[in-house]
């Protein structure tokens, strides 16, 4: 039952927002009593913590699945972006990360600490793969480029209220990031990926 509550709460939080969803809403959606929810979670904050942790795991499982398909580095980044766009189609059109930072800053801080660590790992691996395949320049300062990119991405999500707007800016950031690193071969691959994009 605990896992079912977390799953439903995660879905509602992402769809309608962390602030607007109440324990009553979750109970109503699941056709259970609010008392049942409180049996597992002493308050809404604890449920949000558990839900964000679950979503975090799901996100990284999705990334791992895409990485395992062994696309080239540029294709891989675009696949990840497309998958997230589909995952976070939002009924309120409000960025989940923006809401979390605004209404639950402590939970947000904990999530971001883990997220930055994980993203460092993915971004670095992606750059190394791109260099190996001749899509990115060999002379890159990899740690600096990783930092540039995650600073850009997280800043967009923290400060952009609209999820749709955040996704548009993220696409621009991905193109900017890729162009900054790409060889001629990489630019050709980037243009190919950009032609496939639907916003």
From TrEMBL:
The reply on keyword Nuclease is: no
Pfam families, per database record: TetR_N (PF00440)
- Report what the protein is called: TetR/AcrR family transcriptional regulator
Checking Gene3D superfamilies in the record gives: Tetracycline Repressor, domain 2
The organism encoding this protein is Flavobacterium pectinovorum
According to the UniProt entry, its GO molecular function terms are: DNA binding
Keywords in alphabetical order = DNA-binding
| Residue intervals of the HTH tetR-type domain | 1-59
Annotated DNA-binding ranges come to 22-41
Record bears the keyword Oxidoreductase? no
């Amino acid at each position: 039952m605990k896992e079912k509550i977390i799953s439903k709460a995660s879905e509602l939080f992402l769809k309608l927002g962390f602030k607007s969803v109440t324990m009553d809403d979750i109970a109503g959606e699941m056709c259970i009593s609010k008392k049942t929810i409180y049996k597992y979670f002493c308050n809404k904050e604890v449920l949000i913590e558990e839900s964000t942790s679950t979503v975090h795991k799901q996100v990284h499982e999705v990334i791992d699945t895409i990485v395992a398909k062994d696309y080239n580095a540029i294709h891989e980044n675009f696949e990840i972006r497309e998958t997230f766009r589909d995952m976070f189609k939002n009924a309120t059109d409000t960025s989940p990360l923006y809401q979390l930072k605004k209404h639950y800053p402590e939970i947000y801080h904990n999530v971001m600490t883990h997220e930055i660590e994980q993203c460092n790992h993915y971004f670095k691996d992606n750059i190394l793969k791109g260099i190996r395949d001749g899509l990115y320049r060999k002379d890159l300062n990899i740690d600096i480029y990783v930092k540039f990119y995650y600073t850009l991405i997280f800043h967009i999500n923290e400060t952009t209220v609209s999820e749709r707007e955040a996704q548009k800016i993220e696409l621009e950031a991905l193109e900017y990031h890729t162009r900054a690193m790409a060889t001629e071969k990489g630019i050709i691959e980037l243009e190919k990926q950009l032609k496939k994009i639907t916003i």
